[in-house]
Amino acid sequence: MRKGEQTKEHIVSQAAKLFNRQGFHGSSITDIMRETGLRKGGIYNHFANKDELALQAFDYAVELMRERYLQAIAGKTSACEQLISLFSIYNEIVENPPLEGGCPLLNTAIDTDDTHPALKEKARTALDRWRGLLRSIIRSGIDTGEFRADADSESVIIFLTAAFEGGVMISKLYDNSEYMRVTARQMAQYITTELLITSERTL
Amino acid sequence: MRKGEQTKEHIVSQAAKLFNRQGFHGSSITDIMRETGLRKGGIYNHFANKDELALQAFDYAVELMRERYLQAIAGKTSACEQLISLFSIYNEIVENPPLEGGCPLLNTAIDTDDTHPALKEKARTALDRWRGLLRSIIRSGIDTGEFRADADSESVIIFLTAAFEGGVMISKLYDNSEYMRVTARQMAQYITTELLITSERTL
Predict the structure, then answer these.
(1) Given a cut of 70, is residue B203 above it in pLDDT?
(2) CA distances from A15 to A39, A109, A126, B63 (A)
(3) A44-76 burial string, b = 16+ CB within 10 Å, else e?
(4) Lower Cβ count inside 10 Å, N or C end of chain B?
(5) How far apart are CA A71 and CA A75, in angstroms?
(6) Is the CB of B22 less than 8 angstroms away from the CB of A101?
(7) pLDDT score of B199 more than 80
(8) Closest by alpha carbon to B171, among B108, B72, B96, B86?
């Protein structure tokens, strides 16, 4: 990687963490200079403005989370285990978050839904892809006879996603990961009740 | 009410809507001047700074939502109906939100959890009170024999709150209230399965 590309990637990765903690509106160019250790000119050499940097930083954050999701489901053989493992990635959201500041989708959605159409559009796309991942897991569970074929998958996906993101919010607000773990346990229970064909818990 | 008090209340109510849409960090004093129709001096005459105004605006927003909650449960005789009615208040979150910009608790929690300890503390207190309201409804449902006495109330409260807030986020992001309604329906289903003693749906 050439030096210019390295610098650019350094800026994007540091900005991703900064925006995830402080939000787009709460992060100034001075903050970005502090986090990257670069002068203003060194940043604007690579990005036209804060918007361009924020869009790339969000892509970076989403890609990082996507790797984390895929890692969570790798090696899990049942669809139920895959879902439960996926919904456990924020179980140490306070002590050991995948990305400092919490969930970038949640943070960006709330930060930009009434204020920044371009970032909002990116957050929508990220949520579409997340729903697609859940859909493919649930479908494969139905195909293998693990999950009920008559389950209302789309409603289940929305409900689980809502609970997952809300659990992050509560844990972050109280600085206590236990709320996320409580939420994840209830989600596992819900998956067992609503999706699994057998009434036995698999985990 | 004296004129000074009227002006102060006008500033607080307008600022509450502004902060709920744009966030604390995304709202400048210029924005506040535009929303209130006042000059800078007219605002600083009543508030020492943006922080002081934001704290009072959050109290105002929370009080407004609390009135909306109490209105939702008024006249509902069963605990199940009270919960379902409470969780329906954001069913038209896009077209007809109780407060412009979505849920002030969710917005303030995300906006300030890593950045503004005083507002974060207020958001925590608001979430404590909300949980207290759910707790009292569930307890009364247990007392009357409507809900299971062995229900894990505290976990149920966290899970329902997480789903409720996450549903708001999803609907706001997609500009589509249907996601909130889907979430609310799944919550009603969950309440029926986890809390109600009879297997019959009451709604």
Answers:
(1) no
(2) 14, 17, 18, 36
(3) eebbeebeebbbbbbbbbbebbeeebeebbeee
(4) N
(5) 9
(6) no
(7) no
(8) B96
> Could you give the CA distance from residue B76 to residue B66 in angstroms, rounded to a whole number?
16
Residues of chain A whose beta carbon is less than 8 angstroms from a beta carbon of chain B are 21-26, 101-102, 106-107, 109-111, 113-115, 120, 123-124, 127, 154-156, 158-159, 161-167, 169-170, 172-174, 179, 182-183, 185-187, 190, 193
Summarised one tens digit per residue, pLDDT across range B119-135 is 999 999 999 999 999 99
Cβ–Cβ < 8 Å for A74, A38:
no
The predicted complex's ipTM stands at 0.95
Using CA atoms in the order A42, A47, A48, A53, what is the torsion angle rounded to 10 degrees? -120
Q: Which two tokens stand for residue B132?
A: 């207290």
Q: Which pLDDT score is estimated for B202?
A: 46
- Give the residue from chain A lying closest to B128, CA to CA: A174
Surface-to-core class of residue A173, CB atoms within 10 Å of its CB (0-12 exposed, 13-18 middle, 19+ buried): buried
pLDDT, mean over chain A: 95
Kindly list the residues of chain B whose beta carbon comes within 8 Å of any beta carbon in chain A: 21-26, 101-102, 106-107, 109-111, 113-115, 120, 123-124, 127, 154-156, 158-159, 161-167, 169-170, 172-174, 179, 182-183, 185-187, 190, 193
Partner residue opposite A161 with nearest CB, options B110, B170, B193: B170
pLDDT at A202 over 70: no
Q: Is B195 helix (H, G, I), strand (E, B) or coil?
A: coil
Q: Chain-centre distance of CA A69, in angstroms?
A: 8
Which residue is associated with the tokens 């609970």? A163
Nearest to A114 among B22, B24, B106 (CB): B22
Per-residue DSSP letter, A160: H
Do the chains contact at A111 and B186, CB–CB below 8 Å?
A: no
Give A54 to chain B, closest Cα distance, Å.
15
Which pLDDT tens digit goes with each residue over B126-169?
999 999 999 999 999 999 999 999 999 999 999 999 999 999 99
Q: Which residue from B114, B166, B182 is facing A155, i.e. has the nearest CB?
A: B182
Counting every residue written for chain A, the total comes to 203
